[in-house]
From TrEMBL:
Residues 8-232 form the NAD-dependent epimerase/dehydratase domain. NADP(+) binds at residues 12-18, 107-110, 142, 165-168, 181. The gene is fcl. It comes from Desulfotalea psychrophila (strain LSv54 / DSM 12343). The keyword Oxidoreductase applies. This is GDP-L-fucose synthase. Substrate binds at residues 189, 204, 211, 280.
Length: 323
């Protein structure tokens, strides 16, 4: 017999997104939150995951665990990115079904969409074109996660949902100089340049590509919102084979504008130099978030506000950030 208090398992609770979801759930007093570190539970290990679900019997699962990284990491470790992510997703989703979990939320990534998808990218763009080559293994793993949820819904009648975030940033991000995403990498570079009294900071590319960024606390709020929607309402805004929901701000900025804002937030007074010999990547990546807006949620944290909060956290946790 289940306890009267809902038991919620957050997979990946020490990561940027998972930790934000835990904070959100705790603020709401949502129920008993169950977590495991990687040392306690290897999510790639099928038997270990099965034993965990048998022991804990969660009611709800947030699947935020993933192996993540920037372009360099994706290019260097493609086998690890596809294998580890697919194994984690398959193990958790299958064991959730076997152990009676009726509601699960899978967190994906905007990289699931084709490299040349029409902008802004709507959910219907999935599987309509070629993926970006640099992160194709990771993207394929995330697409597999979406299709796992859809397939279990169709065959077993469970309620497994998927959300696809745009570029995320915030506390507990990875600030590694090579393996991190654009905002943490840029923040660290500007911070170190300020400390060194550097005359300039070099930014890759022309500065013209446009990107969308979402603070991780907004992502957590959106995730809980989508999870808590009535099943009929959620179904009215999705389709059986197109059941994922984009999560973003619906606004983007150029890399130049991002760098200029970052310099102001960090307090770097030197020059910005754009190295046009370096690749720009995709000209624009913006999410169509109209489906989520119709479901009653919009982002609340502005980019400048979010960058300031992230920098304040970075300054308070320099001894702990990953390098």
């Amino acid at each position: 017999m289940r306890k009267s208090v809902m038991k919620i398992y957050v997979a990946g609770h020490r990561g940027m997104v998972g930790s934000a979801i835990v904070r959100r759930l705790e603020e709401m007093g949502a129920g008993e939150i169950v977590t495991r570190t990687h040392a306690q539970l290897d999510l790639v290990d099928q038997r270990a995951v099965a034993n965990f679900f048998e022991e804990e019997r969660p009611d709800v699962v947030y699947l935020a665990a993933a192996k993540v990284g920037g372009i360099h990491a994706n290019n260097t470790y493609p086998a690890e990115f596809i294998y580890q992510n697919m194994m984690m997703e398959a193990n958790i989703i299958h064991q959730a079904y076997l152990h009676g979990v009726r509601k699960l939320l899978f967190l994906g990534s905007s990289c699931i969409y084709p490299k040349l998808a029409e902008q802004p990218m709507a959910e219907s763009a999935l599987l309509t074109g070629v993926l970006e080559a640099t992160n194709e293994p990771y993207a394929l793993a995330k697409i597999a996660g979406i299709k796992l949820c859809e397939s279990y819904n169709r065959q077993y009648g469970v309620d497994y949902r998927s959300v696809m975030p745009t570029n995320l940033y915030g506390m507990n991000d990875n600030f590694h100089p090579e393996n991190s995403h654009v905002i943490p990498a840029m923040l660290r570079r500007f911070h170190e340049a300020k400390l060194a009294g550097a005359a300039e900071v070099v930014v890759w590319g022309t500065g013209t590509p446009m990107r969308e960024f979402l603070h991780v606390d907004d992502m957590a709020a959106a995730s809980v919102h989508v999870m808590n929607l009535d099943r009929d309402i959620y179904s009215q805004h999705t389709e059986p084979m197109l059941s994922h929901i984009n999560v973003g701000t619906g606004l983007d900025c150029t890399i130049r504008e991002l760098a200029e804002t970052m310099a102001e937030v960090v307090g770097f007074a030197g020059a910005l130099v754009f190295d046009s010999s370096k690749p720009d990547g995709t000209p624009r990546k913006l999410m169509d978030v109209s489906r989520l807006a119709d479901l009653g949620w919009r982002a609340q944290i502005s980019l400048r506000e979010g960058l300031a909060e992230t920098y304040a956290w970075f300054l308070s946790n320099q001894d702990n950030y990953r390098d």
